Predict the structure.
Amino acid sequence: MTHVLSLVSYQFLPARVGGQKGIALFNKFFSRHLKLTCITTKSNDAAAAEGYEVLNILSNSSFRYINPSYFFTLKKLIRKRNITHLLLEHPYYGWLAVMLKWTTRVKLIVHSHNTEGLRWKTLGKWWWKILWYYEKWVHRQADYNFFIQDNDRNYALEHFSLSPASCITVTYGIEWDKPPSAEEKRSAKQLLQEQHDIPPNDTLLLFNGAFDYLPNLNGLKRILDDIAPQLQQKEHFSFTIMICGRNIPADITSKKYPQVVFAGFVDDISVYFKGCDIFLNPVTEGGGIKTKLVEALGHNMNAVSCQNGSAGVDSSICNGKLMITDDDLKSFPDAIVEMAGEKALIPQEFFDHFYWKNITEKAAAFIQQQ
């Protein structure tokens, strides 16, 4: 019997932001195809896991990444529970995972959410190259490599010299397999209009994320300082920009930006995905896949994204719902106005690709057939 031990070295339960959801939902659906146990930090709420067991073995201390005692703890656990596969989320605990592979004969799966070295390079960290070489070594030790998008997979094949037979794209997904109804979207939009006192004919634009993450914060500043002022110069285009997410800096929310609503962290973001018309994604830094773009399209929103922000989302399966601009964002405001008139529906092909059940079924088959 396939029994996977998932190793998650930071807090992800309860899952509130995209990266946390990426692990929590992957585990939820993956555990429907095989047995899964998750080892993680004490800061996680084990009761929030669905379909799998969580063991809060790891300390919350930053020194947990160099604590050798975990090798003996996990080695004993692997043997006691007859673990067959070790699933490593991100490369940071690579040394521990590789030692466990060498000493217990488990199959090692490395689940990459970005090319981490390159992501830190875009954020200006001098030590990114050190991490890049470590990341390369970890991936080369793995029996299976899961990449969040095809660009990351292709990069690793070329620059990490991996075997194609060991690599697969396991994208970020959504929990639903069809778009919300027209009535759901109308009701959600009316609720937002009433709640935020928005004129009835405004096109509702949405940007959301965690703003303690620099790429998201920079994207927000581009909207406020560049994109919104240009939209205000467009004749016959009435709009309101909704900004949702945690940790919006006070020096931003304290200012008055015309036609901008700072909703902050909301309990149910799906109301905003259903009620708004166009999702904005002017995020030019970072890596991986922009999870909110996938969720927005899955709610049948139109979307405008720069090239970097659209990585991992093929516009050909979006039926015209996604418009991609250059990363200089010069054409971004015009694209927003153009997309305001797009009435197409997101197609079934999109859900076939991004539905978690299909994603994890493919991943489970990949590790079990080899």
